[in-house]
Design goal:
Chains A, B: This is NUDIX hydrolase. The structure is a homodimer. Chain A is of the alpha+beta class. Chain A folds into two domains: 16-154, Alpha-Beta Complex (Nucleoside Triphosphate Pyrophosphohydrolase); 159-225, Arc Repressor Mutant, subunit A. Chain A has helices at residues 61-73, 77-82, 141-158, 172-183, 189-198, and strands at residues 17-28, 31-38, 48-49, 52-54, 85-91, 102-111, 126-130, 169-171, 203-205, 222-225. In chain A, strands 1, 2, 3, 4, 5, 6 and 7 form a seven-stranded mixed sheet that branches. In chain A, strands 8-10-9 form a three-stranded antiparallel sheet. Chain A is elongated. The first copy, chain A, starts with 16 loop residues before the first strand and ends in an 18-residue tail after the last strand. Chain A binds a DNA duplex through α5.
Chain lengths: 243, 243
DNA sequence: TTCTTAATAGTCACTCTGACTATAAATAGA
DNA sequence: TCTATTTATAGTCAGAGTGACTATTAAGAA
């Protein structure tokens, strides 16, 4: 806020609309997927876009993001409440929406693999889409999605975020899958294991018999997310940080 | 944007105002300072706040941030154009401004030590203030400032941002000062030197005689910022990441 | 000169990591 | 049942990076 001068009166201009856009990721079948909705209106009618919506007068952007997430995915209010929703950044180019001046606060979140989003209720036609197949999107959503992917990739390096992609109990192989899928690289299994187990609070062992896999091979031990939020030392990507 | 439903019409409600707030840091006399302006209007009249202002209809938030920075500091348009301005996050609590619904996009930037901001022109009374002395601030600016300090601290670990605090040519001692001042810790000089020189593209040596210091001791060699933008491996804070 | 100060050079042990090899525990199929 | 195959887990080893040091160099001050 400019404190002393009054060169500019915001009420003299057409107002801004404020929206949230959501980049919601999940890992299914070893591929990174993102939640998209099909637009029913112009512009970009019939095209795909990130879910989102208007911030209402009485709510913060973060609250609006949670509300929209719950509406789009059919997740319970309670589940969404406990989720880690991360504010990505705000997109404010004047021409990003041809209809009016829309400033959008983007959020990103990670979900474990879920059933297809419910199409009913007030949710638009929504679908999990492989990340590489998610283009072109409406508005500047390609850019938002790319930024979200970057952010998630780098957050995996120094936070425990990856467990957010996993169910409550998971194997180290599944956790490694998350890293490999998001980063798009292969990791050495023994080294990954050593690193994860050496990081205090990242995962904790679950007592009891291993899960029935149905597959071949020795069944893996189960773990659940630990108490730590950040990893140190970090678990860096093979090629170092991205440019 | 909600694509298919029309349960909510943003035009039916009082509009949002969109502003930018700036957390501009510098290092002077081995202390971290932040640029503050004194408010001339209610609310918080006479109190200190981060500089900032309204985003105009035809400009993006990033452009508004540059414009405000130039107005507040008196820096030339050209200088501000080349600066690294980083978007921090967006603050959107409904009650953050008692007058109306204001959503603010916060930016942060690092400057080398500069003369006191010009008080003339349309700039408010502005002053460099030691970071610890910058509280309480108007609105939610204490929170924004804390977030900005966190962000800058952690960016120093894996980017070349620190050179932004330094003049065009600087000594490794001055660069180390930046790290020590922002992080609030002391670093081992030979180790810091080794680390910086081992990171390709962080700094490059300047040919020619060392700067006249006037002080005692062996004069230090001069360096300038290198071409790299990120550091790897990172230069981590002694106590690891902050919680 | 000699003392003090600050920059720079070098040492050493310890940790972490990437690239491996080896072993264990399950299933599928002969 | 036996064997091959698959996957999890254990362990090894050399090289890079780091923290905590000590030593040397180059300047001004006493």
């Amino acid at each position: 806020m400019r404190p002393t001068t009054q060169e500019y009166d915001p009420r003299a201009f057409p107002p801004f609309a404020v929206t949230v856009d959501l980049a919601i990721f999940t890992v299914r079948a070893s591929r990174l997927h993102v939640l998209l909705v099909q637009r029913g209106e112009e512009p970009y009618r019939g095209g795909w876009a990130l879910p989102g919506g208007f911030v209402r007068p009485e709510e913060s952007a973060g609250l609006a993001a949670r509300r929209e997430l719950s509406e789009e995915t059919g997740l319970s209010h309670r589940t969404v409440q406990g989720l880690h929703l991360e504010q990505l950044r705000t997109y404010s180019e004047p021409d990003r929406d041809p209809r009016m001046r829309v400033v959008s606060v983007a959020y990103t979140a990670l979900l474990p693999d879920l059933p297809e989003p419910r199409g009913g209720g007030d949710a638009a036609l929504a679908r999990w889409t492989p990340r590489e197949a998610a283009a072109p999107l409406a508005f500047d959503h390609d850019r938002i999605l790319a930024d979200a992917h970057d952010r998630v990739s780098s957050k995996l390096e120094y936070t425990c975020l990856a467990t957010g992609f996993c169910p409550a109990e998971f194997t180290l192989g599944e956790l490694q899958q998350v890293y490999e899928t998001v980063w798009g690289v292969e990791l050495d299994r023994p080294n990954f294991r050593r690193k994860v187990l050496a990081t205090p609070g990242f995962v904790e062992a679950v007592e009891g018999p291993p899960r029935r896999t149905g597959g071949r091979g020795k069944p893996a031990a189960l773990y659940r997310a630990g108490a730590a939020a950040t990893l140190h030392p970090p678990l860096l990507r093979p090629e170092g940080r991205q440019p």
